[in-house]
Amino acid sequence: DLGFERRTGADELAGHGRGSVRWRSRHSRCPDNPRMAKEKSIYICTECGGTSAKWLGKCPSCEAWNTLVESVAEAAPKNRYTIGMGTSAGAGPRGLIASQPVATLSEIEASDVDRQPTGIDELDRVLGGGIVAGGVVLIGGDPGIGKSTLLLQALDELSKNMKTLYVTGEESGAQVALRSRRLGLGKSQVRVLAEIQLEKVAATLEQEQPAVCVIDSIQTVYSDQLTSAPGSVAQVRECAAQLTRIAKSTGITIILVGHVTKEGALAGPRVLEHIVDTVLYFEGDTHSSFRLVRAIKNRFGAVNEIGVFAMTEKGLRGVANPSAIFLSTHGDPVAGSCVLVTLEGTRPLLVEIQALVDSGGPSPRRLSVGIERDRLAMMLAVLHRHAGVSASDQDVFVNAVGGVRISEPAADLAVMLAIQSSLRGKALPRGFIAFGEVGLAGEVRPAPRGQERLREAAKLGFSVAIVPKANAPKKPIEGLTIHAVERIEQAIDLVRGL
Ligand code: TYD
Ligand code: MG
């Protein structure tokens, strides 16, 4: 029985005949009546978890400012969203697992989860093979990048095998239909609901019993359990939590669309990432047609996978061989450029380091953008002392392309190779990458997560790498020739011969 149904239907009809007094008193006794929620919300500190009955600028527990967020005071009543689980529990198509006995770890049968491929290869790649029953996926990205387009295409493919539901809060049903026609999905069997109230969405899920449901977007959905506005941290978190509960109890796969705030975190600030099973992040330059979908977290597969798409007039098309685009956009290799595989959080990221070495005046300049200037001075000294590469009478400019700031020392090797390349006016080979920290003694030290960096480079079509010896993989990586070095002079000698 759905809790929120009690306030509609029979109750309200009964109230009509007997006047509002009885109606109200009934409701005040009803523990899970959503209309009582206004008095039941509490404020929880996002820093320390401390609570307060009213909103305060400063957390009374840890004294942090601006951290209190509205939340529902009570634990959710047991039956509120147990959809499709009447008395005949387990009789439904997916069934609910009843309370489980405690088991010994080694005795638990662990079979791999069943995945349903979406039929869109690049999306399946980041999902770890496909969607999982009861799994919750969050897909984030800038507005207009193609989230709705991709998910509509995926749902259409899935609808050939299973029931699908597309809940749209941003566009009307007609707008979604228009988009589907443009995508050439005129005969699509995808069911569409234009709704933003969580309780109504939940009721529809019970009625329709889809296998997959897309919520586009989580920022537009609101629960009347909370007084906060849709899109607020409190609403986003509560709605995502409720939808996750529904997914887990019914086996419906739920895909949440989330917009990215200006700071780049998924709104509301990362609160959803720990609730859901899988976090995908849509990236791309709106000036180019290429889009990347990255898995940042995946309980059902590997992270740091990327899917590559091209936006066409008929929607998103997977790009099976991304190396082609990345190499062609770079044109011919130029002197003074070296591609670095850096880490952005836990994600490997390829960044081009450019260096320009030019004859300077009496006091040569050393300028760097995106890389620490002190570090640059140090690298120039190491290059001179240990590798015999002198730039003492030269101006040296170094730039990390794309406005990124690189703070990790693993950038050293790429910066030094770029400087050396500019100095001798000779480009590094096509498809070349490097990473590794260089110490004052000229030793090349390993970088964290070297294997992931190399795999990312290989995935993006890079073919030659110079890496610290300790980062050299035991098993060869397909398509990538790896040169392991222990000292900077070794690296310099190597590139002279490449
Ligand atoms: P959309 O999926 O609406 O983005 P999001 O849901 O992430 O906000 O994508 C909108 C953009 O994609 C829009 O600028 C138009 C473009 N587009 C195409 O180029 N081709 C297409 O077939 C479609 C449907 C959209
Ligand atoms: Mg959209």
Task: Describe this protein's structure.
The protein is an alpha/beta fold and 498 residues long. The protein contains 13 helices and 23 strands. The strands form five sheets. It has a nine-stranded mixed sheet with strand order 8-7-9-10-6-11-12-13-14, with helices on both faces. Helix 10 (373-387) crosses helix 13 (488-497). Mean pLDDT is 82; it is low at 1-38 and 75-94. The structure holds thymidine-5'-diphosphate and magnesium ion (MG). Residues 141, 143-149, 179, 182-183, 311, 313-315 line the site of thymidine-5'-diphosphate. Thymidine-5'-diphosphate binds at residues 141, 143-149, 179, 182-183, 311, 313-315.
Task: Set out the fold topology.
Blueprint: H1 10-18, H2 20-29, H3 37-40, E1 41-45, E2 51-52, E3 68-72, E4 115-116, H4 121-127, E5 131-132, E6 136-141, H5 147-158, E7 164-168, H6 173-182, E8 191-194, H7 198-208, E9 212-216, H8 233-250, E10 253-259, E11 278-284, E12 290-298, E13 306-312, E14 315-318, H9 322-330, E15 337-344, E16 347-359, E17 366-369, H10 373-387, E18 394-400, H11 412-424, E19 432-434, E20 437-438, E21 444-445, H12 450-459, E22 464-468, E23 481-485, H13 488-497
Helix pairs in contact: 1-2, 10-13
Bound molecules: thymidine-5'-diphosphate and magnesium ion.
